[in-house]
Design goal:
Elements (H helix, E strand, L loop, with lengths): L1 H26 L31 H4 L8 E5 L9 H9 L8 E5 L6 H13 L4 E2 L9 H23 L1 E2 L4 E4 L2 H6 L3 H14 L4 E4 L4 H4 L5 E4 L7 H12 L3 E4 L11 E2 L9 H4 L3 H11 L14 E8 L2 E8 L3 H6 L1
Parallel strand pairs: 1-2, 2-3, 5-6, 5-7, 7-8, 8-9
Antiparallel strand pairs: 4-10, 10-11
Helix pairs in contact: 4-5
């Protein structure tokens, strides 16, 4: 089953994508970029982009040497998931292709100006390279008002945003392809765990096992949330990472057993979005456990202030974004 879904994602969709990218490169002296606008999730509204087994979507198999030369997707969140999960999808887009540009097509149809303003600040936290807006004729006045606000901000800060780079994360959250093959919602569940980790100010990013040989050196720990399928080859990659000094930490929800790994007494995400998002008790537990492991460069007592650390040369910058707490998220 895993081999079939990998064939579908990498050798069918990915190879077709690579053929299109090669054609564009050939007629533009290697300068042209081409990417898709893939969606996913209920009603195909893009609430779950990039990781959709039915349509062969998995970023390492669809982009780069295996596909398009521009990472792009659309994500009309519509509060189907907490706003912060939009940063997760931008991070997922980079799996296997860390140096490629990432473009996003967000929605223009949500009526509330606040939502579009918050989304913009989250997109900048995710260090997206481009935003492209579509279906302007369906735009709501709330979006038009937001665009008038963040348009000048983007024009003013654009050169700075292009110059700075995110400081590398020191914790990896493992997203194995094989778990998603058997549980299509696993990337979403990991996204909710990522929200809790970010609110606990853990410098974390998603990572696939195949990246560990070249990327594992930057991580002080690799976390597994609710993982119940892992190939023997990926177990070996994790063990090699551990033998080289890294910590492999399983949460309580993880079904596989790795006798040499550490085990948390709690899950990084428990239950549904309605029960797990903005749970300050859980966020406090995570922060208590992981602050000694991989402390954030800057700290804030408020878990609903998202801090993203950027650097340019010797200069450090912080981008702050306001997050909804549990009650505000539930109301939305």
């Amino acid at each position: 089953w895993v081999a079939w879904l990998r064939f579908n994602a990498r050798d069918v969709l990915g190879r077709f994508n690579r053929g299109l990218a090669t054609a564009v490169e050939n007629v533009t002296d290697g300068q042209g970029k081409i990417g898709p606008v893939p969606g996913g999730g209920p009603l195909c509204m893009g609430t779950v982009p990039l990781a959709d087994m039915e349509s062969g979507q998995w970023p390492p198999y669809n982009f780069g040497n295996s596909g398009f030369n521009l990472v792009s997707y659309y994500n009309y969140n519509f509060n189907a998931y907490p706003a912060l999960i939009q940063v997760w999808w931008a991070e997922m887009a980079r799996l296997g292709n860390r140096d490629m540009p990432v473009w996003l097509m967000p929605d223009t149809m949500h009526p509330r100006t606040y939502d579009h303003l918050q989304n913009y600040h989250l997109f900048m936290s995710a260090h997206l390279d481009g935003l492209v807006y579509f279906i302007h004729e369906w735009s709501k006045p709330g979006f038009d008002m937001a665009l008038q606000s963040f348009g000048p901000i983007n024009k003013y800060l654009g050169p700075w945003l292009k110059a700075v780079k995110p400081v590398p994360a020191t914790v990896g959250l493992l997203v194995p392809f094989e778990t998603a093959c058997y549980r299509a919602d696993h990337p979403i569940d990991c996204g909710l765990a990522y929200c809790n980790l970010r609110m606990a100010q853990v410098p974390v990013e998603p990572v696939c096992p195949e990246e560990l040989p070249r990327r594992g050196g930057q991580y002080k720990a690799v976390l597994l949330h609710d993982v119940d399928q892992l190939s023997a080859s990926n177990v070996r990659l994790l063990d090699k990472y551990r033998q080289q000094g890294g910590r492999v930490i399983l949460d309580r929800a993880t079904g596989i057993d790795l006798p040499w790994a550490e085990r948390l007494e709690f899950a990084l995400r428990s239950g549904t979005r309605e029960t797990c998002y903005g749970d300050t008790n859980l966020i406090g537990k995570i922060r208590h456990i992981f602050e000694p492991v991989a402390a954030s460069w800057a700290k804030c007592e408020d878990p609903f202030t998202l801090i993203t650390h950027f650097q340019s040369g010797e200069a450090h910058y912080l981008w702050l974004a306001d997050l909804m707490d549990h009650d505000a998220d539930a109301a939305h």
